[in-house]
Amino acid sequence: MSLNETKTVLHVDASMRREGSTTRALSAALTARLGPGRVVRRDLAEGLPLIDETWIGANVTDPAERSAAQEEALTLSETLIGEIEAADTLVIGVPIYNFGVPAAFKAWIDLVARARRTFRYTENGPVGLLEGKRAILVVASGGTEVDGGIDF
Fold first, then answer.
1. Distance (Å, rounded) from C-alpha 61 to C-alpha 58?
2. Cα angle at 131 between 127 and 133, to 5 degrees?
3. Alpha-carbon distance 55 to 57, whole Å?
């Protein structure tokens, strides 16, 4: 897929810095190069809840057997997954904080990585169910040199 073939981009910003963020600047520049298609933005600085026992219980319950409260617990997860499903390209801008990704990015991953929904387990390991997607990860790490002694 060439840069010009992108129809819908999901642009995820994981930087908590809205001003002066290298990650935001780089991922925005890349998104702009993907052409005139539709861009859906998900700004993780706005916050996401952490998964909890209620969410996990809802997620492991067969969809046909979920209660209304369990369906409600998965509403945001379904919205986030819907954004991925609607996109053919994901641009994810991720800074490195304290030698790892921001907690909000991990929360996003927890909400979208769902067995039987976005992946399934097989005898050969997990297999993704959201096919035909291109993901471009833009990573910036101020003060941590690539391949340096503290680059994890």
1. 5
2. 125
3. 5
